[in-house]
Amino acid sequence: MEFAMLLDAMNQASGFELYRLRAAIDRVLADPKWIIAIRSQLRIGQEIEYLMPVQTSFVRRKCASSELKKCWFVKPTPGSTC
Q1: CB 48 within 8 Å of CB 66
Q2: Which of 18, 19, 48, 77 is 20 to 30 A (C-alpha) from 7?
Q3: d(C-alpha 3, C-alpha 1), whole Å
């Protein structure tokens, strides 16, 4: 997916179009198959890269809990590979 083109299109979209897009994305992400797929791949100690929405930047952490709803991540210690 070309995110630069997507962001450009979103910058030109109306508020209503953005709302419709958000609703569609929320509906797709709320589908249990996504949660099940993520949960099946999640392992304690696994290095994970995820998006921090407010900062719009990616962060790498090690997973400290395999339960998705309770999943929390630990910051890597200095000198670690994570």
Answers
A1: no
A2: 48
A3: 6
What is the chain's alpha carbon radius of gyration, rounded to the nearest angstrom?
A: 16
pLDDT in tens, 16-35: 999 999 999 989 888 888 87
Give the Cα separation of 70 and 40 in Å (integer).
15
pTM over 0.70: no
Q: How far is CA 15 from CA 21, 59, 70, in A?
A: 10, 30, 34
Task: Tokens for 21, please give them.
Answer: 């897009």
Q: Which residue type is seen at 66?
A: S
- Give the containing element (helix H, strand E) for 23: helix 15-29
Residues 6+ apart with CB under 8 A from 32: none
| pLDDT 10s digits, 35-68 | 788 778 878 888 877 777 777 777 787 777 655 5
Sole residue written with tokens 């400290």: 64
